[in-house]
Design a protein that fits this description.
The protein is an alpha/beta fold and about 220 residues long. It is about 55% helix and about 10% strand. A five-stranded parallel β-sheet has the order 2-3-1-4-5. Helix 5 runs parallel beside helix 9. The mean pLDDT is about 90.
Length: about 220
């Protein structure tokens, strides 16, 4: 079973995907990690993320092992990492280099220890439209820009990162603009995606809603 969860930053995709993966014993594939890995690799090597050819070089060389190593860096989930990821993900050459890796994984998903899995849950921006258009269930989760910015701001505060709400909000708006207007695979719901707004929902409510839909599909 393949489930995709798309939507903008801080809409709640990651939290939902993680819980669903544990509930149904599926692999959780955060596709944003591949772009964060490329972006952070460029940042650490003092490369400009706007340089598409350089970004393609890092994308082509990326392995799952290296991706998980980069994920241990404090900047992997910081505003810097997010900004670099958003910029490199807009490059057609980067998306092409990473697309095949993501699609091949859906055909033979495995857990980190190498054991086969019965399926995967993809968390990203275009997993239901581009990466896995054949997915069994597609969700598109959104929330207001202000709500999402506050969620991300509180995350940064909890991690002790030095930032302010207005900066996070501005970065969020810039990322949304890039993600929705890029020429290649812009962020949008798949035609058959289930769309819902989490602005006024608790994680428990979001999870209950998703579980109901998945269980109904499984038992149909």
């Amino acid at each position: 079973m393949i489930i995709t969860i798309d939507g903008p930053a801080a809409a709640g995709k990651g939290t939902l995907a993680s819980v669903l993966a544990k509930t149904y014993h599926l692999v959780y594939f955060d596709t944003g990690m591949v772009y964060r890995a490329v972006g952070l690799d460029m940042y650490l090597h003092h490369e400009a993320p706007e340089d598409e050819n350089a970004a393609e070089k890092y994308a082509s060389a990326l392995t799952f092992t290296h991706m998980h190593e980069l994920a241990k860096n404090p900047d992997f989930r910081s505003a810097i990492g997010g900004n670099y990821a958003s910029i490199v993900s807009a490059h057609p050459k980067v998306r092409a280099a990473l697309l095949k890796m993501q699609q091949d994984f859906s055909k033979n998903p495995v857990f980190e220890d190498g054991t086969p899995a019965e399926g995967a849950i993809y968390d990203g921006r275009d997993t239901g439209t581009v990466v896995c258009p054949q997915a069994d269930i597609k969700f598109f989760i959104t929330a207001s820009t202000e709500v999402r910015a506050m969620r991300r701001f509180k995350e940064f505060q909890a991690k002790g990162l030095d930032t302010d709400y207005e900066t996070v909000l501005a970065d969020m708006k810039a990322r949304d603009e890039r993600d929705t207007t890029r020429a290649t695979a812009p962020m949008k719901p798949a035609d058959d995606a289930i769309v819902f707004d989490t602005s006024a929902m608790s994680i428990e409510e979001v999870l209950a809603y998703a579980l109901k839909i998945i269980d109904e599909r499984i038992s149909a």
